[in-house]
Design brief:
Layout lengths: L23 H16 L12 E6 L5 H12 L3 E6 L11 H8 L5 E5 L3 H10 L4 E5 L5 H13 L4 E5 L4 H12 L3 E5 L8 H14 L2 E5 L2 H5 L4 E4 L11 H8 L6 H4 L7 E4 L11 H4 L6 H19 L5
C-alpha cells in the first residue's frame, strides 16, 4: 500500500493563484456555493473532515488569517498557521523544498507572499492544491468576496478608482468573468498590467460584461452601482508613499465622487483603510458603505473555494 502523498504519479492538482485559474463556469459555481454557505453555515460542516491545510504568512494579516483559520476549522479541517519568519523559509530554504515537504504532511497550501513567483514555484512542484491568499501580482481570494458582495447588492457595474494594483487586477478579471461592467480609473503610470487588461476584455466578451480603462475618476464613477478603492501603498512598498500620494490625491473616494454614481451605489474597500487618504470617513462610515459586509464575505467565499478545490463541496 502506498503512503499518502507518496511519489507515485498523480494528476496535477487544481491550484488557485489567479482568479482565472478557474473557468467562468467554475467561478460561478464557487460563488453560488459561497452564497449558499453564508445562508446555511452548517452546509460545509464536514467538507474538510480529516484534512490539514498549511497557511503560510510572509505578510501581516487580520482578515485573511482569521477568516481562513475560522473557515477551515468550521469545515472540520485543521489549519496549520505558519508565519514564514518562524519556518526555514525565513532562513532561506528554497520554496520548492518547503512545498515538497509540506505536500507529504498536508492536503493543501495557502500562502500570503511577497512575490507571486514563489507561489508559482510552489504550485509547479507540489502535488496538492496551492492557493493564493495575496501576492504582489494578484489577490484572488479578495476578488471572490468582492464579487459575492456585488452580487448580494445586485450591482451590475463597478468602478475601481486608484492604483492598478493586485486587488484591482483580480477584481477586474473576476468582474469580467461574471458579466459585470467594470471601469478602472488610474493616473498614468499606475494602470493595471496590460496582459491582465487584455485577458479581462476577452472574458468580458464571453460573459456579456465590459472592461474600460481611463484616467478620469468621475468618468469611471458616472452612474455605476459600486465604487471600489484600496490603499495607495501596499505592505512592503512604503518607500513610494510620497510619489503615490501626489499621483493619487485626485482619486480619493469622497462624497462628491460617490454622488457621480447611481443614487443607490455602494462603496467598497478591502481594508485596512486610511480615512482621509484613499477614502473619506463620511463614505466608509456612511450609509453607502458595504465594506464590512465585504470583509465578512471573505469567510464565506474562501470556504466555498477551499471546499471546491479539496473535493468537499456539496
Amino acid at each position: 500500500m502506498s503512503a499518502p502523498n507518496s511519489t507515485a504519479a498523480t494528476a496535477s492538482p487544481k491550484s488557485f493563484l489567479e482568479v482565472d485559474d478557474l473557468s467562468i463556469a467554475e467561478l460561478g459555481s464557487v460563488l453560488e456555493l459561497a452564497h449558499r454557505v453564508k445562508a446555511e453555515p452548517a452546509l460545509l460542516a464536514d467538507a474538510l473532515a480529516g484534512k490539514q491545510v498549511a497557511v503560510i504568512f510572509e505578510k501581516h494579516s487580520t482578515r485573511t488569517r482569521v477568516s481562513l483559520e475560522v473557515g477551515i476549522n468550521s469545515m472540520g479541517g485543521a489549519p496549520i498557521i505558519l508565519p514564514a519568519s518562524q519556518t526555514q523559509l525565513g532562513r532561506g530554504e528554497p520554496v520548492a523544498d518547503t512545498a515538497r515537504v509540506l505536500e507529504r504532511y498536508v492536503d493543501a497550501i495557502i500562502a500570503r507572499v511577497n512575490s507571486h513567483e514563489q507561489l508559482a514555484e510552489m504550485a509547479s512542484v507540489a502535488r496538492i492544491p496551492v492557493m493564493n491568499a495575496l501576492s504582489d501580482l494578484a489577490h484572488p481570494m479578495q476578488a471572490l468576496a468582492d464579487i459575492q458582495t456585488l452580487q448580494e447588492r445586485e450591482a451590475k457595474s463597478v468602478a475601481y478608482v486608484g492604483d492598478g494594483n493586485n486587488v484591482a487586477t483580480s477584481l477586474m478579471i473576476a468582474s469580467a468573468m461574471t458579466g459585470l461592467d467594470f471601469r478602472i480609473a488610474s493616473p498614468p503610470g499606475f494602470e493595471v498590467p496590460e496582459d491582465a487588461l487584455e485577458r479581462a476584455k476577452s472574458y468580458a466578451s464571453e460573459s456579456g460584461g465590459s472592461v474600460a480603462q481611463m484616467s478620469d475618476p468621475f468618468e469611471a464613477a458616472a452612474g455605476v452601482d459600486a465604487i471600489y478603492t484600496d490603499v495607495w501603498v501596499s505592505m512592503g512598498d512604503e518607500a513610494s508613499l510620497q510619489l503615490k500620494r501626489g499621483a493619487l490625491e485626485a482619486y480619493r473616494v469622497s462624497g462628491e465622487l460617490m454622488s457621480a454614481a447611481s443614487p443607490s451605489a455602494i462603496a467598497l474597500h478591502c481594508l485596512p483603510a486610511h480615512r482621509g487618504e484613499e477614502i473619506d470617513a463620511e463614505v466608509i462610515d456612511g450609509p453607502s458603505s458595504a465594506v464590512f459586509d465585504q470583509a465578512e464575505n471573505r469567510l464565506h467565499a474562501q470556504k466555498a473555494l477551499i471546499a471546491a478545490l479539496l473535493g468537499g463541496a456539496k
